[in-house]
Specification:
single chain, binds magnesium ion, 451 residues, 14 strands, alpha+beta, 4 domains, 5-stranded mixed sheet, Alpha-Beta Plaits
Length: 451
């Protein structure tokens, strides 16, 4: 598809609802520049907006994502902040893809340094240094090396590992190139991290068909073409899950990696979910997992068979969890602004550089942050520390990993590493803060690798 950007003036939300679009041209894809790497795609050839400034964007073009419901021939739109609403898609079989690049940072390094192909590449601090792993190639993962693990542990597990310093700018540039290819499919896109996105293919698959399986199957060749294009143009492999919702699409992309393409049919979804551990379900973190397994509910099948209400175990979330267990999920793509960060900080009564005090402080902050992430069912790609010295000089440093962290011990370890790496505690601190950003919906699973 030709990615020509032209401008359509959208006069107002009401005008769109009534088909009164004042069009100056057509948009094939569109990506706002001020939210780097976050794609908002207009439906190709239908309508769209290409505002030049952020203000213009919010003032004139709140309905950016559109869907034409061919049953009623009316143009339905959903506001940017609301994503795709269920109401606007009533009667339409959704087709959602989840695209996830395979071992992204490490694969970029292997592509850029062909001599590293087939070797266990570990991106992060060197194996003989205090530091952490940001990403590991599949060859390294075979040895149990995982993101957020101390580099020394990684070196012990995989002595032949090739340790490389992360090149975040390089990965971000690559991400932009990939998301450009993704946007050219014409899908509506929710980018969730540097190497991961949900794609709404509903319109591209002729959602008018009465048979949901037929609609889903139409996405498979398109997904395959996207994978091939990314491989051909970027020399990187991606895995894609195709299903009727985000929950299943994400499980699908994880199901067969690398370079996997997994279609989860509606009639197969209940059976597909049955053997998976409860942790595989979106939103089940460490605490919920323990609650469920303590109650004897270990697999998703156990949840399916559980006769009672899950509210007794997991509170008001129970009914949603039950629906997830049967593969039902009506969460829309999030196209608006979400929670951007969670942080915690302490000002000391008297300035201190006592390592034990600082470590204890970080540990408590990490617990606090991990607890808040779990309650909101979020996971973080970036950990940040903030220090303020006696003279009020304030510094922040951050690190990003390619597999989101959810647990207090990982947040804590990354925080400690940042303090040490940047030698931030060379004089007494007045304030110490810890934070996470790059938040995304909670880590789905650790099916294969656990440590
Ligand atoms: Mg990935």
């Amino acid at each position: 598809m030709n990615a020509v950007q032209r401008r359509i003036r959208v006069s107002s939300w009401e005008a769109l609802g009534g088909m009164g679009v004042e069009a100056e041209g057509r948009v094939d894809w569109w990506q706002p520049a001020w939210r780097e790497g976050t794609g908002i795609a207009a439906v190709p050839g239908r309508f769209g907006a290409f505002p030049e400034t952020r203000d213009e964007f919010y003032e004139s073009a709140s309905p950016l994502a559109g869907v034409s419901d061919s049953r009623s021939s009316s143009l339905q739109v959903s506001r940017l902040s609301g994503g795709w609403g269920r109401a606007s898609l009533a009667g339409v079989h959704r087709v959602i893809l989840h695209l996830d690049m395979d071992a992204f940072y490490a694969s970029v390094e292997q592509r850029d340094h062909p001599e590293l192909k087939g070797r266990p590449v570990i991106v992060g601090a060197a194996g003989d240094q205090r530091g952490v792993v940001c990403a590991a190639s599949y060859e390294a993962r075979k040895f149990g090396v995982r993101s957020a693990m101390p580099s020394r542990t990684a070196a012990r597990l995989c002595p032949q590992g090739v340790f490389l310093r992360p090149r975040m700018d390089r990965y971000r540039d690559e991400s932009r190139e990939i998301m450009r290819l993704v946007a050219e499919t014409g899908a509506v896109i929710q980018q969730v991290s540097v190497d991961e996105a949900y794609l709404d293919f509903t319109l591209l698959c002729g959602a008018e068909s009465d048979d949901p399986e037929v609609v889903l199957e139409r996405a498979v060749p398109q997904a395959h073409e996207l994978q091939e294009r990314i491989q051909r143009e970027r020399q990187l492999s991606a895995s894609i899950g195709v299903a009727s919702n985000k929950l299943l699409a994400k499980l699908g992309s994880d199901f067969r990696k690398p370079a996997g393409l997994t279609l989860i049919r509606e009639r197969e979804k209940v059976a597909f979910l049955r053997p998976l551990p409860v942790r595989a379900l979106h939103g089940v973190g460490t605490v919920t997992e323990k609650t469920l397994t303590d109650a004897g509910l270990k697999t998703v099948g156990d949840l399916q068979d559980h006769p009672g209400d899950l509210r007794a175990l997991v509170g008001s979330w129970g009914p949603v969890l039950k629906r997830f267990a049967f593969g039902d999920d009506d969460r829309p793509l999030e196209l608006g602004d979400e929670v951007r960060s969670i942080s915690s900080e302490n000002t000391f009564e008297s300035d201190t550089e006592d390592r034990a005090v600082l470590r204890q402080c970080l540990r408590e902050q990490a617990e606090d942050i991990a607890g808040r992430m779990e309650r909101r069912r979020l996971a973080a790609l970036t950990v940040q520390v903030k220090v303020r010295y006696t003279d009020f000089t304030t510094l922040t440093r951050q690190i990003s990993v390619d597999e989101p962290v959810t647990q207090a011990r990982d947040v804590y370890r990354l925080g400690c590493w940042l303090l040490a790496q940047h030698r931030l505690v060379h004089r007494p601190l007045r304030l110490l803060g810890l934070g996470v950003s790059g938040l995304q919906e909670g880590r789905i699973q650790q099916l294969v690798f656990r440590w």
